[in-house]
């Protein structure tokens, strides 16, 4: 039992020593790097300060055993920098050198960083072709080389970066055809404003046309555009059918009104003779009454006249 405890303590102490040595080496590497570069902004990388808590742009892993990330964007780095020194940071996962004025060719020595997951060299003055083989970055998820002066063809080996989800090569001078990149997890692609030719490969046709603008590339109709067009056609068809139904309903209402009016006219035309008969009855009654009055008067006066003109007989 005591032997096991002692063995565990030895392992723990050994690991602590290794971790302490690793962070010590990383600190020495970064001091060497900063002393060999030109930069307009002051970096407080002092040997007397803690590299994990005090150094600008430096982030360590959770146990502070090694450098995990370098965020040196817009720090005034300029010129042809020897980035091979940074390649000694074996546990480095994030390298951000965006928005500086770094020149020179692509730093192939960075391929030694096997744990690298994010590399951003955008908005610098890098030039020349990319390495033909980039497959060593098996864990790379983000690659941004935009707004430089890289030229040559886009390496097809990028397709071997199966964990890649963001690729930005816009605003360079890449030429030739776009390689067929079978990367299912790729969510963001930007190849705009280069000198690319040919057609967009089948594997990349899911991306919007803006990803290929500024090239001599024959881009197919984007699937989302087709869906939008199809949806638009369905909307137009629905509106047209609604208008047709509304017109038919209006015509039906007008037809009912016309039929109703005609029925009313027929009824009124049938009622007019009876009304006329009703209206003529009082006149007939008056005439008949007058006639009866005249007849009655004549019947009473005539005998009187005849009596007065006739001899009286007792």
TrEMBL record:
This is (thale cress) hypothetical protein. One of its GO terms (molecular function) is ATP binding. Gene3D superfamilies: Ribonuclease Inhibitor (3.80.10.10). The chain crosses the membrane at residues 235-259. GO terms for cellular component: membrane. Keywords: ATP-binding, Leucine-rich repeat, Membrane, Nucleotide-binding, Repeat, Signal, Transmembrane, Transmembrane helix. The keyword ATP-binding applies. Residues 24-61 form the Leucine-rich repeat-containing N-terminal plant-type domain. Residues 266-284 have a biased composition (Basic and acidic residues). Residues 266-314 are annotated as: Disordered. Residues 294-314 have a biased composition (Polar residues). InterPro entries: Leu-rich_rpt, LRR_dom_sf, LRR_N_plant-typ. It is found in: Membrane. Residues 1-20 form the signal peptide. Its main location: membrane.
């Amino acid at each position: 039992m005591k032997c096991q405890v002692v063995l565990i303590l030895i392992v723990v102490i050994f690991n602590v020593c290794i971790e302490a040595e690793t962070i010590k080496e990383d600190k020495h590497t970064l001091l060497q790097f900063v002393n060999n570069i030109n930069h307009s902004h002051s970096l407080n990388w002092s040997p007397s300060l803690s590299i994990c808590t005090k150094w600008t742009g430096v982030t360590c892993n959770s146990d502070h055993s090694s450098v995990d990330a370098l965020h040196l964007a817009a720090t005034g780095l300029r010129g042809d920098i020897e980035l091979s020194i940074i390649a000694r940071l074996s546990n480095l996962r994030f390298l951000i050198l965006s928005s500086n004025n770094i020149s020179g060719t692509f730093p192939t020595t960075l391929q030694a960083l096997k744990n690298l997951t994010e590399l951003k060299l955008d908005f610098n003055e890098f030039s020349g072709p990319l390495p033909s083989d980039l497959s060593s970055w098996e864990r790379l998820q983000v690659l941004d080389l935009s707004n430089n002066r890289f030229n040559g063809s886009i390496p097809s080996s990028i397709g071997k970066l199966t964990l890649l989800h963001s690729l930005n090569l816009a605003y360079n001078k890449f030429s030739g055809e776009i390689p067929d990149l079978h990367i299912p997890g790729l969510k963001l692609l930007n190849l705009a404003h280069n000198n690319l030719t040919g057609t967009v490969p089948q594997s990349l046709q899911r991306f919007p046309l803006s990803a290929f603008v500024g090239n001599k590339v024959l881009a197919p109709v984007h699937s989302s555009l087709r869906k939008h067009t199809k949806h638009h056609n369905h909307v137009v068809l629905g509106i047209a059918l609604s208008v047709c139904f509304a017109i038919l309903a209006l015509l039906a209402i007008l037809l009912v009104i016309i039929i109703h009016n005609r029925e009313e006219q027929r009824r009124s035309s049938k009622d007019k003779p009876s009304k006329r008969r009703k209206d003529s009855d009082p006149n007939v009654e008056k005439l008949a009454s007058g006639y009866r009055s005249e007849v009655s008067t004549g019947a009473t006066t005539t005998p009187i006249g005849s009596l007065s003109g006739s001899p009286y007989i007792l």
